């Protein structure tokens, strides 16, 4: 699942989906016989579960920022020539 899709889910739906994916991960790990497709699927499931848990925690703490808010808070990292000269000395 993509982040946008995960963010649209409610807290209950997020919890249910995470549990479902954890079960699927357990099944895949149990049947893994070293196949590259299985390894890729396991990696994908683990990352999706991690995304879900992070987004759930963001919702709990109410810290989600929009792209516009992130862009406004970024400050350019400009170093003046005077600061460079002081560092050299």
Question: Could you explain the architecture of this structure?
Answer:
The structure is a single chain. The chain is mainly alpha-helical and 89 residues long. It has one domain (3-65). The protein is 76% helix and 0% strand. It has five helices and no strands. It has helices spanning 3-8, 11-31, 36-61, 67-73, 81-88. Helix 2 packs antiparallel against helix 3 (36-61). The longest helix is centred in the middle third of the chain and has 26 residues, at 36-61. The chain is elongated, with a radius of gyration of 21 Å. The N and C termini lie far apart (52 Å). The mean pLDDT is 79.
Compact overview of the structure:
Helix content is about 75%, strand content about 0%.
Strand content: under 5%
* The number of domains: 1
Largest sheet: none
The end-to-end distance, rounded to whole angstroms, is 52 Å
Mean pLDDT: 79
User: How much is the radius of gyration in Å?
Assistant: 21 Å
Described by the principal axes of the CA atoms, the overall outline is elongated
Helical content band: over 70%
Main structural class = mainly alpha
**What's the β-strand tally?**
0
Low-confidence stretches: none
Which features characterize this protein?
single chain; mainly alpha
Strand-helix topology:
Elements: H1 3-8, H2 11-31, H3 36-61, H4 67-73, H5 81-88
Helix pairs in contact: 2-3
